[in-house]
Amino acid sequence: MRSVEFSTTTILSAAVEEVFEHLADPDNHVGLSPLVVEVRDIRRGPDAVHFTAVERFTLGPLRHDNVIEVTLHLGEGAITGDVVSPGGVRVAYGYHIDPVPGGTRVVDHYRLSAPFGLLRFATSQAKKVQVARGRELARRFAAKRSQA
Q1: CA torsion through residues 37, 138, 82, 127, sign
Q2: What pTM does this model have?
Q3: Fewer CB within a 10 Å sphere, N or C end of the chain?
Q4: What's the whole-number average pLDDT of the chain?
Q5: For residues 53 and 66, what is the distance between their CA atoms, to the nearest angstrom?
Q6: Do 86 and 64 touch, CB atoms closer than 8 A?
Q7: pLDDT at 25 over 90
Q8: Average of pLDDT values for 118-131?
Q9: What is the pLDDT of residues 33-86, one digit of tens each?
Q10: Which helix (H) or strand (E) holds 104?
Q11: For the packed helices 16-24 and 116-147, what is the interaxial angle rounded to 10 degrees?
């Protein structure tokens, strides 16, 4: 099985702790990824959070709900995750969260592996999700600042 790796970086005008808490809460993942429409069965431990997420793929009038199991490992300045998806697609990802002047830098890194026939599609979808996630994080934290 082949794999690919890619990253994006987003700068947020928010404290590191606030960003970490937001990304560590599975409920905040709905809409953070444009594919995630539901999270359920949240199980919290001291260093990890496990949950089930529903990704919705649409193509014209066709719709497919992809149920995935997610584990978020909570570390110092990082949240890493593992996703097992049907079809043999595996994603290991991480948010590296660091202070920068005036806010927080979030590096969103993916290592994706998939069978030959799915790799290109899965990579394309994951890259779109990553870019959208950065925009949505920026929007959410800008909205919090304007409400304060």
Answers
A1: positive
A2: 0.88
A3: C
A4: 91
A5: 8
A6: no
A7: yes
A8: 89
A9: 888 999 999 999 989 999 999 989 888 899 989 898 899 999 999 999 888 777
A10: strand 103-114
A11: 130
Place of tokens 């890619």: 6
Cα gap 123→148, rounded to integer Å: 38
Residue 3: pLDDT band by 50, 70, 90 thresholds?
very high
Residue 9, token pair as written in the block: 């970086």
The DSSP bridge partners found for residue 112 are 4, 91
Contacts of residues 139-145 at CB distance under 8 Å and 24 or more positions apart, as own/partner, are 140/22, 140/32, 141/12, 141/13, 141/14, 141/18, 141/19, 142/13, 144/14, 145/13, 145/14
Instruction: Go through the domains of the chain in sequence order and give each one's CATH number.
Output: 2-147 (3.30.530.20)
Q: Is the predicted pLDDT of residue 148 greater than 80, yes or no?
A: no
φ/ψ region of 46 (left if φ > 0, alpha if ψ in -120 to 50, else beta) reads alpha
